[in-house]
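In this section we walk through a basic example: taking a raw amino acid sequence and producing a predicted 3D structure, encoded as discrete structure tokens. The instruction is simple. Fold the sequence below.
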Amino acid sequence: MSVMEIDEIRATLPHRYPFLLVDRIRELEVGRRVVGVKNVTINEPFFQGHFPDRPVMPGVLILEVMAQVGGVLALKSLPPTGRPAVYLTGVDKAKFRKPVVPGDQLRVEVEVLRQRHPFWKMQGQAYVESDLVCEAEMTAMVTEEQSVGSAQRAASAE
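The resulting token sequence is shown next.
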């Protein structure tokens, strides 16, 4: 097991403010599971419009937190070579159980269901204290950043 603070998370994920949504990794079992934390504050830019009089964290951003926590797991489970990137390819069975509001701390637990290079299938749950607020299955692809850019350029040239 391992713990990661924000500097190591920033060294692992390419996301930056305002889209880096993981504040800490509490547990990491390489290739198996991860537990991450997102502190939800009123200063989040999305609360200005969602909703000004009753701020609620958008469900899609809760899923993004789960995806980023899963991305840390995938990237830390690979040998440290090249510049791999994780791309979310699908979300299934997403359920939102309770709203997430400023002052909440999201605890996100993600476990690997299947992994066959370069694809990962993971199950994620997000909790506020002991309450399950969101759950989903996610699929992702890990690839080298350069190869994705090359594929995008080739596709746009057609």
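Looking at the output, two observations stand out. Strands lie at 24-29, 33-39, 84-96, 105-116, 119-128, 131-144. The two ends are 47 Å apart (CA to CA). In the next section we compare this with other chains.
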